[in-house]
Amino acid sequence: MGVGEFLSGGVADVRRTARGFRWGRRAQVPRSAEPFVQPPTGTVFDTGWARRPSVVAAREVAQRVGLEPLFRAQVRTRVEGLDVLERLDGPVIFVANHASHLDTPLLLLSLPDSWRRRTAVAAAADYFFDTWWKAVGSSLVFNTFPIDRRGGSMAATPGEVLADGWSLVVYPEGTRSRDGWLQGFRMGAAYLAQTHGVPVVPVAHRGTFAAMPRGAGWPSRHEGRRREVTVRFGEPLRAREGESVRDFAPRIKDAVAALLDEERTSWYEARLRSAAGTTPDPAGPDVATWRRVWAQTEPVVTEPHAGRRPAPWSRLRAEVAGRARSALER
């Protein structure tokens, strides 16, 4: 072997070695080829104590003495359709749109005492139960129980709470809306109602996003005045004989959409459009995000102030909101 052949062979060996060396310390085995490891399950949170008679009595005091006066001091509330509960007996599932942390206290404080004392709220385990103080506080004040959105095991399922005679508050969107408009509904509430044979009471919140949107830590005011928030209860729905969960869930969403339409128009107009299947899409118009948010932050006004000319900023906001509604109704 000549010197030239020896050197060329040595260079080739060095190149092969360099290509095979883990210069970046990267794994030699592709990640997809690694052995499967079962992900850890969610933490089990026991909230059964929050439904004991002594805690129910303590919650009544906390809501009446602490929560309600504070809530009323920050927002003006209006409740519509509460008479539907007079025709119901036993547990129900309140299915509502979710745009703000104000939704739960608004709904609970609007219920008659006998209903509120026997109502539990399904809450996200990864948000309200990630620390002990949030878990204890939300369970004590709002009677929440955790729902693991990632599939972990829970101490009590919604079905078990229903079976014990408690009504439920469920937000099928799964999280608060980022722009105030209705998001897609999951089918959990429809499944629970069909499985346990309980009615669904649709509920629509209006004005809570404007008062305290996602990311805000305290309710805001409009021109120095408390914002008005509205909760509207609709006629109860039951799963029809032979109706699948996949068919029942859209009916629930349509009922909430009709209540939101009623809030923007009138009871008669909303009923006509609901019967004709022309209720505006509750997901909102296909416009820029800032316009969608701006339309939802329009103040809720039940009676215009006579002789008072709206400020230019309010007129511009109303104009944008009107255009958004026009685009929604097309």
Description:
This protein is an alpha/beta fold. It has two domains: 48-283, Glycerol-3-phosphate (1)-acyltransferase (3-Layer(aba) Sandwich); 284-301 and 309-330, no CATH class. 43% of the residues lie in helices and 13% in strands. Strands 1, 2, 3, 4, 5, 6, 7 and 8 form an eight-stranded mixed beta sheet that branches. Helix 8 packs across helix 10 (245-264), helix 10 (245-264) runs antiparallel to helix 11 (267-276) and helix 12 packs across helix 13. The longest helix is centred in the N-terminal third of the chain and has 22 residues, at 53-74. The relative contact order is 0.12. The model is unreliable at 303-315 (pLDDT under 50).
Number of domains: 2
- β-strand percent reads 5-15%
Q: Which structural class best describes the helix and strand composition?
A: alpha/beta
Q: What's the CATH class of the largest domain, please?
A: Alpha Beta
The CATH superfamily name of the largest domain is Glycerol-3-phosphate (1)-acyltransferase
Number of helices: 13
CATH architecture of the largest domain: 3-Layer(aba) Sandwich
Rounded Rg: 27 Å
* Average pLDDT figure: 83
Tally of strands: 8
Distance between the termini: 86 Å
Question: The biggest beta sheet, please?
Answer: 8 strands, mixed
| Uncertain residue ranges | 303-315
What is the approximate shape? elongated
- In CATH, the topology of the largest domain is named Glycerol-3-phosphate (1)-acyltransferase
Q: Output the helix-strand order.
A: HHEEHHEHHEHEHEHEEHHHH
Helix content: 40-55%
